[in-house]
Amino acid sequence: MTKQTFIKGAMILLAAGILNRLLGFIPRIALPRIIGAEGVGLYQLGYPFLIVMITIITGGIPIAIAKWTAEAQSQGDTVRVKQIFRTALALTSSLAILFTGLSLLLASWITTHILTDSRVYYTFIVMTPMLLITAVSAVYRGYYQGKQNMVPTALSQTVETIFRIVFVLLFAKIMLPWGVEWAAAGAMLGVVVGELFGLFVLLIQFARDKKKEEIAAFGDSVSKPETAKPVLGRLLGLSVPVTLSKMVGSLSYLLESILTARSLALAGIATGIATAQYGALQGMIIPIVLLPTALTYSLSVSLIPSLSEAAAKGDRLTIHKRLHQSMRLSLVCGAPFVVIMALLAEPIVRILYHHADIAPMLQLMAPIAIFIYMQAPLQAALQALEKPGTALLNTFIGAAVKIILIVQLASNPSFGIYGALIAINVNTVLVTLLHYISVRRLTGFHMKLLDFIKVGAAMVIMGASLKWTLQIEWLTREWQNVLAACGAGALVYLLLMAITGIVNRDDLSRLPLIRRWLG
C-alpha cells in the first residue's frame, strides 16, 4: 500500500466520519421535540446493553479481518482471503443469531430487572435485529479495509446515517399516538432501517466487485488451503485482545446507565422522571458537548501516522512538535464552544429542544468539555506510540472512579441527576490528565503555559463581546439574536487568535480537510 493510497483512504473515511457526525446531530435536535425527554430516555436506555452485545459479537473482528486480509492479499493468496472472509462471517453471524435469540427470550427480565424501566421492552425488542445486521456489516467493512478500499465503508456509513435520520423521525412521529414507549420503539426501528440500508450498500458493492472479478480469483490457489479450525483459531487470537479492550468502555457505559437509574430511584425520584432526566443528559446535553469532537477527530486521524513515523525514526523533536500542534489546535478549536455553551446554555437548549429547565446541566458540563476535546489527540498519541494498554488502563481507572461517584452522588437527593453529571465530569478530567501524564513520561512532552494564558484571555474577551451583542436584541427572533451573538463572539475570538499568533499555517496543515487548500 503506497503512502498516497493510505492518505487517500484516510481522507475518505475522515470526510465520511465528520459528515456523519454532523448529520447525526439532526435527529438529536428533532427527536426530543417529538417524543420529549422521557421518550429520549427510553430510546437511550437500551443502547448500552446493545453496545455490549455488539462488542462481544464483533469486537476486534473487523481489525483482525483487515489485518489478515491485507497480509494475504499482499502475498497473492486469494484462497486464504476467501477463507478469512467466510470464517469471520460464519463466526459473527452465529454469535449474532445466538445473542438475538437470548435477548428476545430474556427481554422482559432484562428490561424490568437490569434496565429498571419496563417500558423499554418495546424498544429493546425492536433493536435486537441490529445485532445480526451490525455483525454482518462489520465483516464486510473489515474485509474492504483489508483490501485497501475505503469507499464502500464510507458510502455505507453515509447512506446508513441519512436513512436513519429520515426513518427515526418518521416512525417516532407515526407511533407517538400509541404512547411515549411506542414512539421510542419507533425511533429505534428507524435506526434498524438505517443499519439495513447501510448493509445493502455493502452487499451491492460486494456483488459488483465479485462480478468484475476484483474480489477473486477466489478459485485460484497459490497455497494449500488451511482448514477452518486454524483460520478460526488465528482469527480469534487476533480479535479477542481487541474485544477485551473495547469491553472496558462498553461495560462502563452499561453500568453507568444502570447505576444512574438505580441511584436516582434510591434518591426517591420516580421511574418516569428518572428516565426523562437520563434522556435529557445522554440524548440532549452530551450530544451538544460532543459536537466539536468532529474537529478533534480530524486531528487524531492526522496525528497517528505522523507520530508513528517520527517514533519509528526516534525523532523526538518531531514528536514534540506534532503533539504541541495537535494539543494547541484542540485547545483553540474547543475553547469558543466552551464559552458559547457556558454563557448561552439556556437559550441554546430552549431553541434546540424547547426545554430550558435542562440548561444547568449544560452549564455544569461546559467548562469540562475542553478536557474532552484535548483527550482525543492524547489517546491517539498513545496508540501511535504503541501504548494502547496504557490508554486502556487510564480509561479503566476513570471508569471505576465514575461508577463509584455515580452510586455515591446520584443516590443522594441533594444531587440527583447532577451527581451523575459530576461523576462524568470527574471521569473526563481524570482520564485526560492520566493520558497527559502517560504521554509526558513517554516523550517528555509538556504543554506551554503561555498557550493557556492566551486562549484563556481570548475566551474572556469573546464572552464579553458575545453577551454584549446578545443584549442588544436588534433582531426579532431569539435564535437570530443567539446566532448573531455567536458569530460576533467567534469573529472576535478568531481575530485574537490571529493577533496572538497562537495558530499558524503549519498548524492548520495538520487538519487533513484544510491541508489540501493550503497546498
TrEMBL record:
<keyword id="KW-1003">Cell membrane</keyword>
<dbReference type="InterPro" id="IPR002528">
    <property type="entry name" value="MATE_fam"/>
</dbReference>
<keyword id="KW-0472">Membrane</keyword>
<feature type="transmembrane region" description="Helical">
    <location>
        <begin position="284"/>
        <end position="308"/>
    </location>
</feature>
<dbReference type="Pfam" id="PF01554">
    <property type="entry name" value="MatE"/>
</dbReference>
<feature type="transmembrane region" description="Helical">
    <location>
        <begin position="121"/>
        <end position="140"/>
    </location>
</feature>
<dbReference type="GO" id="GO:0042910">
    <property type="term" value="F:xenobiotic transmembrane transporter activity"/>
</dbReference>
<dbReference type="InterPro" id="IPR002797">
    <property type="entry name" value="Polysacc_synth"/>
</dbReference>
<feature type="transmembrane region" description="Helical">
    <location>
        <begin position="482"/>
        <end position="503"/>
    </location>
</feature>
<feature type="transmembrane region" description="Helical">
    <location>
        <begin position="161"/>
        <end position="178"/>
    </location>
</feature>
<dbReference type="InterPro" id="IPR024923">
    <property type="entry name" value="PG_synth_SpoVB"/>
</dbReference>
<feature type="transmembrane region" description="Helical">
    <location>
        <begin position="329"/>
        <end position="352"/>
    </location>
</feature>
<feature type="transmembrane region" description="Helical">
    <location>
        <begin position="47"/>
        <end position="66"/>
    </location>
</feature>
<protein>
    <submittedName>
        <fullName>Stage V sporulation protein B</fullName>
    </submittedName>
</protein>
<feature type="transmembrane region" description="Helical">
    <location>
        <begin position="184"/>
        <end position="204"/>
    </location>
</feature>
<feature type="transmembrane region" description="Helical">
    <location>
        <begin position="12"/>
        <end position="35"/>
    </location>
</feature>
<dbReference type="InterPro" id="IPR014249">
    <property type="entry name" value="Spore_V_B"/>
</dbReference>
<feature type="transmembrane region" description="Helical">
    <location>
        <begin position="390"/>
        <end position="409"/>
    </location>
</feature>
<feature type="transmembrane region" description="Helical">
    <location>
        <begin position="87"/>
        <end position="109"/>
    </location>
</feature>
<dbReference type="GO" id="GO:0005886">
    <property type="term" value="C:plasma membrane"/>
</dbReference>
<dbReference type="InterPro" id="IPR050833">
    <property type="entry name" value="Poly_Biosynth_Transport"/>
</dbReference>
<dbReference type="GO" id="GO:0015297">
    <property type="term" value="F:antiporter activity"/>
</dbReference>
<keyword id="KW-0812">Transmembrane</keyword>
<feature type="transmembrane region" description="Helical">
    <location>
        <begin position="449"/>
        <end position="470"/>
    </location>
</feature>
<keyword id="KW-1133">Transmembrane helix</keyword>
<feature type="transmembrane region" description="Helical">
    <location>
        <begin position="358"/>
        <end position="378"/>
    </location>
</feature>
<feature type="transmembrane region" description="Helical">
    <location>
        <begin position="415"/>
        <end position="437"/>
    </location>
</feature>
<dbReference type="Pfam" id="PF01943">
    <property type="entry name" value="Polysacc_synt"/>
</dbReference>
<feature type="transmembrane region" description="Helical">
    <location>
        <begin position="253"/>
        <end position="278"/>
    </location>
</feature>
